[in-house]
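Re: histidyl-adenosine monophosphate structure - here you go.
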Amino acid sequence: MSKKIQAVRGMRDILPEQTPLWQFLEDRARAVLEGYGYREIRLPIVEMTDLFKRSIGEVTDIVEKEMYTFDDRNGDSLTLRPEGTAGCVRAGIENGLLHNQAPRLWYQGPMFRHERPQKGRYRQFHQIGVEAYGLPGPDIDLEVILLSARLWKALGLDQLELQLNTLGLAQERAAYREKLVAYLGSRVRALDEDSRNRLHANPLRVLDSKHPDMAEVIAEAPILLDHLGSESMAHFDWIRGNLDDLGVQYRVNPRLVRGLDYYSRSVFEWVTTRLGAQGTVCAGGRYDGLVEQLGGRAVPAVGFALGIERLIALLEEAYGDSLAKDPLAYLLLAGEQAQARGLQIAEQLRDQVPGLRLQVHCGGGGFKGQFKKADKSGARFALILGAEELKRGVCGVKPLRTDEQQQEVALDALADFLKNQTR
Ligand code: HAM
């Protein structure tokens, strides 16, 4: 036997047992997003590498260490997208979607980051992302947060904590940056290697360090929130006031800085304690400078992305395999004549019963084996068709999940019988 080829480390198959949970999440999310006027955009998985360098930031974990970057056959440097915001902005500029209109867009699909795989952290993972453009006021920040809260409700998830912060404006961050550099400089011996390298290049990223030795240094660092001007604070306070009025609970986390460079003003994360270290299931914020930075006219923007795998882990706890879409009926066919007629009858039933989930036995074999398969399929009924039934124009119907007796139903009444069961 030749050597088996395995999936790439950190990239998982989503098996049929799991797809009902994914479909449930995707269906509910789509319904909520449409309910807020968001329209779906489908974006390429591969983009020019510079797009991510210029948006996420050169001195970030994602760009420095985690991107899947390669030269294509023309020698262009391409990258598997590590996130969706940059591509969405690129597409918005390129297709003229951002001028004189305020599009609200959403996307979903795989993202790629070469991180160390662990529970809730993969190298191929999936996001649903939401981006609203052209709106500078805090009303849209609030609505985006409310939308995410409604998503959890639609999924039946509670116990998620909303954490909120504001990163202010670029000029306010510049003043804070000096203080931060001075502080970090005074603690330089306590910094890990990454943080030392970032001290001057991108000191705010030091605050996002997950290195255990850095926790104390970060905890004692000056706080950005204390250095913001009145306009930034008014924007933030408006959001907070309205969340209070609406009874949406949140915690201001002044240490929340996000791992990507493009944010300004509001940032937020939804966090659970149920998934160990990878507890952030959804994250986002405002990124007013990015469109201009990528070559468009200045357009304010706000959005978030949720991590599907992490939410699936929570849904699995809540729903187990109860969302599986088993067939309603499994059609057993005994004998050659029934085999051909059975497929015809099944096609007629599908015409007559919209949404019917009917699995027809293929591959022949005895009744005993067919019954076993019917049982395993999860179907509620076994439909039994042999030469004898065909002759009499009936079909045996055996409930597989209750003790009810087997009965006979006339073939021309079978569609109505199945319709009644699907109600
Ligand atoms: P992010 O915080 O990098 O933000 O990722 C958003 C979410 O994706 C995370 O909170 C997490 O749930 C999930 N995620 C990230 N990396 C992984 C991984 N390796 N394995 C599993 N799940 C992961 C962004 O990507 C921004 N584009 C969000 C945004 C949209 N901001 C504004 N608009």
